[in-house]
Automatic annotation (TrEMBL):
Pfam families: DNA_pol3_beta_2. The keyword DNA-binding applies. The gene is dnaN. This is Beta sliding clamp. It comes from the Bacteria. One of its GO terms (biological process) is DNA strand elongation involved in DNA replication. It is found in: Cytoplasm. One of its GO terms (cellular component) is DNA polymerase III complex. InterPro entries: DNA_clamp_sf (IPR046938), DNA_polIII_beta (IPR001001), DNA_polIII_beta_cen (IPR022637). The keyword Nucleotidyltransferase applies. It comes from Musicola paradisiaca.
Amino acid sequence: GDRMLVRSGRSRFSLSTLPASDFPNLDDWQSEVAFELPQATLKRLIEATQFSMAHQDVRYYLNGMLFETSGDGLRTVATDGHRLAVCSMPVGQPLPSHSVIV
């Protein structure tokens, strides 16, 4: 399949991609939560949970990672239906409760 390479500083992530035509049009979508965090924090959150993500599972929601904000923290969660990984880290600012699978 196609892959996307994301590089930031010394971090490097290779992510699987799907054709944009497989997803609904999000022209009117507005971001519900905006915040900044250090690259090292994002890297730690992803690395601590990505090993539990499913790969090419027909249950598409298992192929992603849950990002959840609450209080002053950001949590990532991933599962393949057998393993479950969770990592939470403070981001140093109050955040509304929101979650999205990426």
